[in-house]
C-alpha cells in the first residue's frame, strides 16, 4: 500500500487526496470504501479513474477476504530487513554469524520484556480491547438468541454480532482478530470474558512461547572443530569440489531489484535476447545455461 500511495502522490501531488486514499484503504466495509472514493471524485475525477484501475482486493481492507490484523504495509518487517541488508554483503559465514547474533539478542530482549507483562493480552492488543470497552458503554444491545445480537449506536446505526462465529457486520472483529466495540458490547451484555474471544496470537502466553527457545552463543570460528562423515579417519576424507553453475553470469555484483507499484505513466518496451531468444533481457545479461 505504501508503494501505491507513493505512485499516487507522484501522479496527483495532492496531500488531501493521498489522505483520502489511505482512508479508503483502511475502510472496513465496501460502503465505507465507496464513500471515500466519492469524496476523492469530488476533488479529482481523474484520481478515481486511476484508483479504479487497481484491483481493490490487493490493497483495500474492505475487499480483503483473510485476516490482515490492521496491516496495510510491510513496515512490520523493516527492522528485520534493515540489519539483514547490512549483513547480506558479507561472506557467507560472517553473514550467517551476524544474523544469528542479532536473532540471539532479539529473542532474549523480547523474552525478558514479556516476563514483565501482567495482562492476558500483549500491550497493543490490550489497549485495543480497553478502547473498545470504553466505546461499548454507549451502545444499546438487544439479544436474539444465545449467539446473535443487535448492537445499536446513535452514530453508527445497527450492527449484527455473532459471538459464536466471532464476527460483526462492521467486519472489525474478523479483520483485526480482536473484538470490535460492537462485539465487546454484546459480550459484556451476556457476561462473557472479552479476552477469551481474542485470537490466541495476541495472548502473552503465545508471545512468550514464541521466544521461549534460546539461540545459544557460538565461539570464534578459530575454535570450531571439523566434523568427519560418520567418524571416518582423517586420511580417508575426500575433498568435495563444488563447481559454479553452468550459466553466463554478468560481471560485477548483481543489482538489488525491488518490486514497486505499477508506474502507469510509462509504457515498457519488450526486449529480446539474441542468445536464448527469450524476452525480458539482453544478451549481455543473459543467465540461461550454456
From TrEMBL:
SMART domains according to UniProt: ZnF_PMZ
One Pfam family here: SWIM
Keywords: Metal-binding, Zinc, Zinc-finger
Taxonomic superkingdom: Eukaryota
Molecular-function annotations in GO: zinc ion binding
Annotated segments matching region Disordered: 244-263
Limits of the SWIM-type domain: 149-191
Stated name of the protein: SWIM-type domain-containing protein
Organism, scientific name: Arundo donax (Giant reed)
Record lineage: Eukaryota, Viridiplantae, Streptophyta, Embryophyta, Tracheophyta
Amino acid at each position: 500500500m505504501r508503494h501505491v500511495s507513493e505512485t499516487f502522490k507522484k501522479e496527483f501531488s495532492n496531500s488531501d487526496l493521498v489522505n483520502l486514499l489511505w482512508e479508503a484503504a483502511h475502510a472496513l466495509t465496501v460502503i465505507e470504501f465507496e464513500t471515500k472514493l466519492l469524496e476523492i471524485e469530488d476533488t479529482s475525477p481523474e484520481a478515481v479513474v486511476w484508483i479504479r484501475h487497481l484491483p481493490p482486493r490487493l490493497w483495500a481492507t474492505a475487499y480483503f477476504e483473510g485476516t490482515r490484523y490492521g496491516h496495510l504495509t510491510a513496515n512490520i518487517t523493516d527492522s528485520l530487513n534493515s540489519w539483514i541488508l547490512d549483513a547480506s554483503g558479507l561472506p557467507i559465514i560472517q553473514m550467517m554469524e551476524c544474523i544469528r547474533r542479532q536473532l540471539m539478542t532479539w529473542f532474549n530482549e523480547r523474552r525478558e520484556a514479556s516476563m514483565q507483562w501482567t495482562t492476558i493480552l500483549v500491550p497493543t492488543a490490550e489497549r485495543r480491547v480497553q478502547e473498545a470497552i470504553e466505546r461499548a458503554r454507549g451502545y444499546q444491545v438487544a439479544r436474539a438468541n444465545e449467539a446473535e445480537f443487535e448492537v445499536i449506536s446513535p452514530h453508527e446505526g445497527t450492527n449484527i454480532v455473532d459471538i459464536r462465529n466471532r464476527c460483526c457486520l462492521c467486519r472489525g472483529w474478523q479483520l483485526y482478530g480482536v473484538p470490535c466495540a460492537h462485539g465487546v458490547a454484546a459480550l459484556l451484555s451476556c457476561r462473557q470474558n472479552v479476552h477469551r474471544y481474542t485470537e490466541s496470537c495476541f495472548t502473552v502466553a503465545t508471545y512468550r512461547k514464541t521466544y521461549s527457545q534460546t539461540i545459544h552463543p557460538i565461539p570464534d570460528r578459530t575454535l570450531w572443530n571439523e566434523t568427519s562423515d560418520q567418524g571416518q579417519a582423517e586420511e580417508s576424507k575426500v575433498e568435495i569440489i563444488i563447481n559454479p553453475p553452468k550459466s553466463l553470469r554478468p560481471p560485477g555484483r548483481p543489482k538489488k531489484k525491488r518490486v514497486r507499484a505499477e508506474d502507469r505513466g510509462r509504457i515498457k518496451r519488450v526486449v529480446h535476447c539474441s542468445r536464448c531468444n527469450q524476452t525480458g533481457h539482453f544478451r549481455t545479461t543473459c543467465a540461461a545455461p550454456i
